[in-house]
Amino acid sequence: MQKMIGEKIRALRIQKKMTQAELAGSFITRNMLSQIENGVAMPSVPTVLELAKRLDVPASYFFSDAGTLDDYRKIGALDKIKKLYAAKEYEKCLGKLRELSIFDDETEMLYAWASLSCGIEKYRAGYLKSARSYFEEALTHSQKSLYGNPALSDTAAQYLDAVAWIRAGEKTPYPRTERDTAAELGVLADLSYIQAVAGERETFEYGTAFPMYADHLKARADMQKGNYRTAAQSLKELVARDGEKRYAVMKYYALHDLESCSSREGDYKCAYECASAGRALAEKMNK
Asked: b/e map of 20-48 (b: 16 or more CB within 10 Å)?
């Protein structure tokens, strides 16, 4: 046991390119550390705890002859990572996973779910270029894991379709993909809204839970009927709502529609303001 502890401490110190003096610090002498590494002296529990802290490994790693260092690092880190995910701290979750740098089936799926969640947050905030990167990461990590989740992959792929269609300026046909009914309600609402915009439909089955999407589609229906004044009033109220941060994509289209309505009604000041605000959102989509 004494020899094994010393060998593990020495191996980790060398791996981290630390001198004995750097690792020993003021806690123990360099000579004592040398004796521990050579198996001559048995470190006390407080010494092991301090060395483990400085070497960034669980103390239990030094006392076991089973399991690799990665196994122990993973045990120590995964609980924190899962708590971050549960708290919806997805960026921090991904940061900790990158620090851990362990790629197995379990961590790959954590990467995938955290990346998907980051992508959805970025999409709803209007940062479509960043969202695309996260969705692509979600697909990549999901495919690398034996626990690959079809619903996760399907959701990431459909958001990628939506992002591609929006960023292309709606110049290509929107993919007619089937939605996974097991997906989270907010995801279904995001995708259903874009499909409705692409298909120029006013029907929206998630209007009770997500009224801003429904209100925009209703205003679009008024525009198609030639009721531009009514539509303009609804759209003005819609884009003035600042409390919801998840509707950046919808506001982009609402501003475009309000610009069109205002021009038809001769309200060129409003049309100009909408065009400026729309350009600002379009620039945001490239971030």
From this structure: beebbeeebeeebbebbbeeebebeeebb
Q: Which of 28, 96, 39, 30 is nearest to 62 (CA)?
A: 39
Please name which of 47, 46, 49 lies closest in space to residue 35, comparing C-alpha atoms: 47
Tokens describing residue 14:
């060398």
Which residues of 158-255 form beta strands (DSSP E)?
A: none
Residue matched to tokens 């941060």: 245
Q: How far apart are the first and last CA of the chain?
A: 54
Question: Tokens at residue 232, please?
Answer: 């303009």
| 220: enclosing H helix or E strand | helix 211-224
Instruction: Look up residue 43 and give its DSSP letter.
Output: P
Q: Maximum Cα–Cα distance for the chain, whole Å?
A: 90
pLDDT tens digits, one per residue of 5-38: 888 889 889 988 999 999 998 889 999 999 999 9
Distance CA 130, CA 139 (A): 15
User: pTM of the prediction?
Assistant: 0.75
Please, what are the domains in the chain?
A: 2-66 (1.10.260.40), 70-167 (1.25.40), 206-284 (1.25.40)
